[in-house]
User: Fold this.
Amino acid sequence: MRNTLVKTLTEEALKDNTIMLLTGDLGFNVLNKFYDVLPQQYVNAGISEQNMTSVAAGLALSGKKVFTYSIGNFSTLRCFEQIRNDICYHNANVKVVSLAAGFAYGPLGMSHHATEDIACMRSLPNMRVFSPADPLETIAVTKAAITSDGPCYIRLGKGGEPNLREAFDIENFEVGKAYQLRDGKANVCIFSTGSVTKEAILAAEQLKDRGSIPVYTFPTVKPIDEEFIRACAERYDAILTLEEHNIVGGLGGAVAEVLAENPSRARLIRLGLRDVFSSVVGDVAYLRHYYKIDAEAVVTALEKVLK
Amino acid sequence: MESKALAKAVRIDVVEMIHRSHASHIGSALSIVDILSVLYTDIMKYDTADPAWEGRDRLVLSKGHAGSALYAVLAEVGFFPKSWLENYDLNGSPLSGHVSHKGVPGVEFSTGSLGHGACVACGMALASKLNGKTNRTFAIVGDGECDEGSIWEMAMFANHFRLSDFTLIVDCNGLQSFGPCEETIELLDLGRKFRDFGWNVMEVEGHDHDALRKAFSARPSNGRPTCVIAKTVKGKGVSFMENNVLWHYRDPQGEEYERALSELQGAEQ
Ligand SMILES: Cc1ncc(C[n+]2csc(CCOP(=O)(O)OP(=O)(O)O)c2C)c(N)n1
Assistant:
């Protein structure tokens, strides 16, 4: 996803010299595709995320379209108040990018796991939150970020994620809409966001003898697709949300808020980190299994509600 | 164990750990091996049988990405079995890539996000002072890490509160993520900066054990904190890793691994 974002951003920045990319001293062998061709539109701010974020706000308030780039929590939580006061309150045209959402940095440890970022970013007025599930969604949200004014957050996987569909209508991508990845007629459905969506697809595949389970992705977590959630709540007995993030305040939290205000047929099952830090050491597959957000956990949870 | 022997063993451990796990940051770890070895042999007071002993000196590795070096030192001096190092950065291990204290005896504090650890250490030093204790507190930061504003907030604080038992060690290897620090964000004269912030400053060769011992043992009596600027080489000890930013990321395999080991094993103690 990171290469997809950098490639898309570079293409757009070649056409629009107000686009700028700021990094907090990260992106070795990744951002070179941008700065090799557009050195004037690139700044390494050093290891100083707070200053970088405020500088981005200043640039944006002077007419630039600014992307700030770092990994894990460094572009979000480290400079949360700068994002809140400087970017969001001033509705500055800054796009905050974080690479390696959730456990993507695996054994590097909890400091590098972004597992509360959606909740934090979602809580800020004016902020939109994008969490693409595959490279195609990444292109779509990057373009949407550039063409729409104002703050947004883009939460990326690490790299090497497969596309989860054959085709995606990027030109007609709509911010704030859920997208169907897999059709189905079962009495339950899966909502997922980010690269963990791969596990939802695997689970649906494993359960195909028990019924076809629809899978929907949420490339935009904020604004959340309320209308769609309400419709699903009438159509299904259960909605399962899957995210590589704390169940507090993330996709599951956002869906819960909609359902609480619109009581209906479906019950909600949230899979994610159950309000703990991911302090266990391991690679992504190991951690997804340990924290029960892999295909197996989805299957186990759905078996209880499938008819 | 003598500091030189410890440093030699730890360098070999680090290369093996990172080779096995395909982790990053080998250059960052090799850079601080001599600093850690001198601290843990000749300077710091601690009890491996009682890691929480109240009178101990504290060390926080603020540049937590060099965790492999700290873990290896702690294992070599006896805080936990050396066999733990075999699973460093691998599934189910207590030893994550960045420094973690959970279930790891001897680790004072978890780090990984730069610009935190030194400030936490400063808090520990303040507590010792408030409690009338005489133990020392050390923190190791990278020179690139000094880009972070928090380091300079801490620098003013530690001087203001006269934390004379607090020693900040800057691992000045001149490189950070993309290349030289001076080409990223100019640090200029770090020693002068800390002096201007009120600190005692000592600038030493960061791989010369005698010089390090002397700097860490000197206890200026003016009541102010001490900053030891250690001039180091990123990747120290493995010729082809030295001063090469590639080894911030790369892990040694095949012939590179063999060469690294043979250089380190052949090195004099
Ligand atoms: C807050 C924060 N931003 C970015 C990083 C990513 N990062 C890890 S090491 C590093 C460079 C560190 O350079 P330096 O402090 O000089 O240490 P060295 O590796 O050169 O020893 C960066 C930017 C981080 N760990 N924490």
Summary: The longest strand of chain B covers residues 166-172. Chain B has a mean pLDDT of 97. Residues A 24-26, 47, 49, 74, 78; B 28, 31, 63, 65, 112-115, 142-145, 171, 173, 175-177, 234, 248 surround thiamine diphosphate (CB under 6 Å). Residues 3-266 of chain B form a domain with the Rossmann fold fold (CATH 3.40.50.970).
